[in-house]
Amino acid sequence: xxxKSVLRAxxxxxxxxxxxxxxxxxxxxxxxxxERMSLSCNRIGFVRRECCYQMxxx
Length: 58
Description:
This protein is mainly α. It has three helices and no strands.
């Protein structure tokens, strides 16, 4: 799984497009994916926030 093994992959979506899920659905589905991958709370936080911040900062 990319999210577990690639340290700085960008977590993103196409939300806002007519054929994409609503924000609540996306967040819920993401939580299921993260749980299925057995990601720690720290890793989930990094994926959702810190990784993007670090990429923009550099």
